[in-house]
């Protein structure tokens, strides 16, 4: 409100200065020496009166212009004040009912640029809510540098060249051999074989190992041991407080086609199926559930035999070829053992469900990946 008042005062002072100049000019023009008044003709008097009327008309026009400017300024200030008050009242109402009316136009489609919603915009605390998106602003300043990654966990690659990247040069980590390729996949053990299928990659080959067949304690699972072990500060001699690990042999002395494998150490291979991340061992099947799965190998389900002198072990799927480690024909006295697994069922309902499973039949198995 102060700015228009100051402007009005300035206009008023300017008007007075202009009026004074005109009056002074008129007065100076009228300061005619008295000795020449009687010399004026009628025509001279009429011309002088006409000049005075033009000056008076100019003064009246200047006064009217000044009055109009003052009125406009007062009206604008009044309208602005009323409009602000009306906007505040309207926005206060819209805070409580931002509902159904769409004032963005009939051609406005909700969800598009310039028409994001089906409700009309409203204001809260001077900020427009649900208003159409404005023009894109200028990019902000660069943010602070990020934290260092943890042991390479947060990064798969190190930038070793700044060509066309604009990134600072970083030396490679020790032991880094380039960007790793996408060769991840499922890892499995092929029991009873020293090679992997053609569609899988061999990680290492070795022999099966586990606990002694009748020893208490130790582990219950079978391991695929590599042929070239590493040691850390070994202590010579047999310790009393230790778990023991033995080679595992086939014990199949009553099977017409597999009896020749008895007392031979079980071969094994650790394989990786590239780009296949799911791995499944299916007992009772020699194939995979569907064409979406890849059959890695099939064979027989095997474990420690059911006997009072034998301890429990894991069930594993052994390749049907049942390959063995060369020159390992031995004795069960210092070995773990693998025997074929048979299904047991009775008509009374004990054991497995009879019908699909036949009492005394060896259980097959398959290892599949996807």
From TrEMBL:
Residues 1-20 form the signal peptide. InterPro entries: Ca-dependent_lectin (IPR051077). Residues 158-167 have a biased composition (Polar residues). Residues 42-76 form a coiled coil. Keywords: Coiled coil, Collagen, Signal. Transmembrane segments: none annotated. The keyword Cell wall biogenesis/degradation does not apply. GO terms for cellular component: collagen trimer; extracellular space. It comes from the Eukaryota. Residues 133-181 are annotated as: Disordered. PANTHER family: PULMONARY SURFACTANT-ASSOCIATED PROTEIN A, SHORT-CHAIN COLLAGEN C4-LIKE. This is Short-chain collagen C4. It comes from Holothuria leucospilota (Black long sea cucumber). The lineage of its organism: Eukaryota, Metazoa, Echinodermata, Eleutherozoa, Echinozoa.
């Amino acid at each position: 409100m102060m700015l228009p008042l100051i402007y009005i005062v300035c206009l008023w002072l300017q008007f007075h200065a202009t009026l004074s100049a005109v009056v002074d000019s008129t007065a100076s023009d009228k300061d005619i020496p008295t000795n020449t008044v009687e010399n004026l003709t009628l025509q001279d008097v009429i011309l002088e009166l006409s000049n005075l009327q033009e000056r008076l008309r100019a003064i009246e026009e200047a006064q009217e212009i000044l009055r109009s400017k003052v009125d406009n300024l007062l009206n604008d200030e009044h309208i602005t004040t009323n409009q602000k008050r009306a906007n505040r009242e309207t926005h206060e109402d819209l805070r409580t009912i931002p509902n159904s009316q769409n004032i963005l136009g009939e051609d406005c489609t909700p969800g598009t640029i310039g028409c994001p919603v089906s409700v009309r915009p409203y204001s809260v605390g001077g900020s427009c809510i649900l208003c159409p998106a404005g023009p894109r602003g200028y990019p902000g300043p660069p943010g602070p540098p990020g934290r260092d990654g943890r042991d390479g966990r947060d990064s798969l690659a190190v930038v070793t060249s700044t060509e066309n990247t604009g990134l600072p040069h970083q030396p490679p980590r020790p032991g880094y051999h380039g960007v790793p390729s996408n060769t991840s996949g499922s890892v499995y053990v092929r029991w009873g074989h020293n090679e992997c299928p053609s569609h899988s990659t061999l990680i290492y080959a070795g022999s099966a190992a586990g606990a002694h067949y009748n020893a208490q304690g130790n582990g219950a699972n079978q391991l695929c041991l590599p042929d070239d072990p590493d040691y850390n500060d070994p202590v010579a001699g047999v310790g009393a407080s230790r778990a023991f690990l033995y080679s595992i042999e086939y014990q199949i002395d009553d099977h017409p086609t597999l009896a020749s494998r008895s007392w031979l150490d079980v071969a094994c291979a650790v394989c990786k199926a590239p780009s296949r991340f799911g791995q499944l061992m299916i007992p009772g099947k020699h194939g995979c559930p569907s064409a979406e799965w890849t059959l890695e190998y099939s064979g027989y389900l095997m474990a420690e035999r059911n006997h009072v002198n034998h301890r429990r072990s894991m069930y594993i799927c052994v390749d049907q070829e049942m390959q063995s480690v060369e020159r390992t024909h031995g004795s069960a006295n210092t070995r773990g053992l693998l025997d074929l697994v048979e299904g047991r069922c009775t008509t009374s309902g004990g054991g497995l469900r009879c019908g699909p499973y036949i009492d005394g039949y060896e259980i097959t198995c398959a290892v599949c990946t996807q």
